[in-house]
Queue: 2 jobs
Job 1
Amino acid sequence: MHRYNNDDPLDVALRPPPNESPEEAALREAREEEARRVSAQIDAEIKAERQARRKKRIVRLLLLGQSESGKSTTLRQFQRLYTPTAFREERIQWRAVIQLNIVRSIRTILHALEPPTHRRRTTSAAPSASMLALAGPSSPPPVPALPLPIPGTTADITDQGAAYPSSYPSGSAYPGGAYASASNYASGSNSHYPNAHARDASGYASGDDYYAASDPESDPELSSRYPSSISPGGRSPYAASSFSSSPYSQHQAPNGNPAWDALRAALLPLRHVEALLIARLVPPSEDEPTRLGSGVVPGSIPALRADAQSLQEGSANGWSGSPTALADVVGLGLVGLRESPRHGHEQEIFVRPGNRWMGGGHAKSKSPTRPSFSLLGGRHSGSTRNSNDREKERDEAQETLHACAHAMIALWADPGVREVLKRRKIRLEEGPGFFLNDLERVTGPHYLPTDDDVLRARLKTVGVAEYTFEMEVSTGRETGTEWRIIDVGGSRSQVATWVPFFDDVDAIIFLAPIAGFDQVLAEDRTVNRLEDSVLLWKAVCSNKLLAGVDLVLFLNKCDILERKLKAGVKLVRYVRSYAERENTFEAVSQYLRSKFSAIHREYSPNPRKFYAFCTSVTDTTTTGGIIASVRDMVVRQHLKQSKLL
Ligand SMILES: Nc1nc2c(ncn2[C@@H]2O[C@H](COP(=O)(O)OP(=O)(O)OP(=O)(O)O)[C@@H](O)[C@H]2O)c(=O)[nH]1
Ligand SMILES: [Mg+2]
């Protein structure tokens, strides 16, 4: 008999009504008994499913980490190594993504070259009260140190503490902030992160994305180059002048650089390429809710498609119709719209995981509570046209890019352009999906993406994708084990949504992109990327549901970290506790590794297997060996567990 505790609010809520009749009591008890029975049955089913999976040798791996940490790239490495035939077959399909990545880079450059009054402020999030307080005139930007919540180092907490959550609730998966709408991904330059104002001698932007944090209006050189009389407005960055009705018309160049205007005019067809790619990559979808009503949500698929259509039709509006939405498509890669399974009618924008856009098999949900999609590759659908057919297809986007190649190369090679980018602290070469150093090759009419290109392409994931495969015989690996790798979209609210579903995976590969110590999150420009990784790691380690899952940590993007440190960016400016240590790659990576290990030791509810690697998952040579170690470790553990059953 349950005894109710007077002080416990839960007990108070569960207590039977005071005037309950014997019949009512009997009914209630029957209901409670039925609920217990259903719960026990669900537990038994989960256990049986787990055992069956172990017997059938199904290994499940979960990839976790913040957005842009390299999860999907790690997945692609698995595909490249263990299903090489399927991986090769699909390379051609990445061409469209690479095309979008290129158009996005060119767009960013053209936007940066615009007169300051023409550049839109693209960061839509209003600064929070705490950020305003930090950024206000009476409170100058504080010394840019990162309050890394590393156990036992209270000295790490600085006066910026108010801007960050000191920790996520222990045991909770991850705090689900408001879903970052597409417009928040625009290539904005106005970070609210206080560190954005800090600058290293190297000229690296501090605490920002790959984009500049400086205020262009206060840039004296730019201001003098662009007369203030230019009317502001939603121009396309490709448009040669805001005064001309047609960008091709003869006019007095307003910015004093006719060479740039000529390039801008020559690159105008890229507008069409972008529209084409959007129309192609964002197909009409059965997932799209029909009850959106007449209101088109900015950044939503109807809005995006409307933009694409208006561009294709040569609408006078051009890019100014909904510039943010278009920028977002390029920034996000491929997006779709569906209802969040957890949040009812809330809309999510997501990369259609898998085959639909690649033209392969079918995305399907295997269980009502655990949506999963089969990602491209692995088990190839027989209906897929082979890559040779695709290669032969006329690709208008590629043709246009080819025709624009000279102008793009000239733009990227222009020392003045580089100077502006440097001054605005736009570091495209460090960002994802950077192909400007390969323009001649990738715009070739017969271009087929190489393995490296596929690994470097940027395609944001939203939602959950489960990639199922058996190692191809050609790889010389044992067959018969089915691998399931789950790749989740890494933006904050998504991780929060999905993590609790994966308590029964064999291992988690957690990616912490440690090169991001001087950057902020794309979806929340008030949060430092390294700090976000640390907090997410802490939440994963301490999560009770995941207590039995082995952890593999990839301290990723070490190639970028090494370059950054060599260029003179100092870790200590962001992580105070780093103190006087050497600013070398070896010392920094070792230090961060020890901090992540300490969090694991301190917060894991039970002892478990833990491995840590410094990785650059875009690098095929080094990553191959690391993935092989992970594979062996996971299989060993899996067998051990199966024997215990
Ligand atoms: N230089 C370098 N680039 C990397 C590395 N790892 C990933 N990238 C690039 O970073 C970008 C983002 O990687 P993704 O694998 O798409 O990141 P993700 O974690 O799946 O991100 P979401 O899908 O948004 O959650 C891609 O363009 C990758 O090529 C790395 O170690 N070094
Ligand atoms: Mg991804």
Job 2
Amino acid sequence: MTETLLHASNVAIEIAGLELVSQVNLKVDKGGSVGIVGETGSGKSLTCRAFAGSLAVLGGRISRGTLSLAGRNVTSPRAHAEAGLYGRVVTLMPQNSMSALNPLMRIGTHLTETIKALDADGGIAPKVRATELLDRVGLREPERVLRQYAHQLSGGMRQRVMIALAIAGRPHLLIADEPTTALDVSVQKEILELLRRLNHEENMGLILVSHDLGVVKAATQSVAVMYGGMVVEHGTTETVLRHPRHPYTQALLRARPAIGRTERLIGIPGIPASPDAWPSGCRFAPRCPHALTQCNASVPALETLDAHHVVACCRVHELTTDDRVGASA
Ligand SMILES: Nc1ncnc2c1ncn2[C@@H]1O[C@H](COP(=O)(O)OP(=O)(O)OP(=O)(O)O)[C@@H](O)[C@H]1O
């Protein structure tokens, strides 16, 4: 039987009285992998921070719904912190985390301090454990890397160090927020392969955030598409990318460049929805080619189409699926 590691039920996130994210329903099973995609500002990073229990540093909180991790209710930041799950059960590699390495601290110090803080040496000297971790993330000559500083490493090496730090406490769930951004294509592939190996070989659950659908396709079993602070479509990655049902997912796929693609790329007209002026109904309606007056009446709830596919669009049953947009995903 599959074991649920993370369960977000109708989660909303608020900062300074403004609801920035709403209606997040997501489950990650032990050893499962979920992608979160959406354009900038859609709420991906705040959702990750909520899962990792680090909203408070932004002055944010989960204002509605419930969040449980490894069977514990961690909806409030206090419950999350008191449960001591960070680093051991869940860990977050935030966006641009590579630049968070202290330039004056050797890589070895970063690792041994983290291992000690998490009490995660596993009965061996922290330095030996640090060497093991660098080896595990595919860094050659780990002893040499331990003595180096961040500026002496390439971008790909720094990202591997970040992954080593993230897995130091043997977490059950790794959340990686845009882990391949700012890396060149061949290094991106290697980092994705490493995340996939950790997910498959060590049964570590993975939440992978990206605005690149190709990245998510390569490494996740299911995907949640976010727009305007809400999940608008969710299902197995194969189903969502091959047979997208939400007009926003379809638009994202039409706008995506891919090698060998022959059809014209079509951008998404209009500007993204903004939290200080959310539309009254469907948040994508002002940009949607299929919108009718009824779409402005109320925010559509997620509707289950089948066991592997949920969509929040009030016209989902009328609109035909354009499988061609998914064919090149
Ligand atoms: N600390 C904050 N204070 C106020 N608003 C915030 C804060 N952090 C994020 N927001 C707003 O919340 C919304 C969601 O932001 P979030 O960073 O989660 O988006 P995202 O999908 O991760 O975007 P990106 O791909 O650019 O990282 C945006 O409108 C953003 O401006």
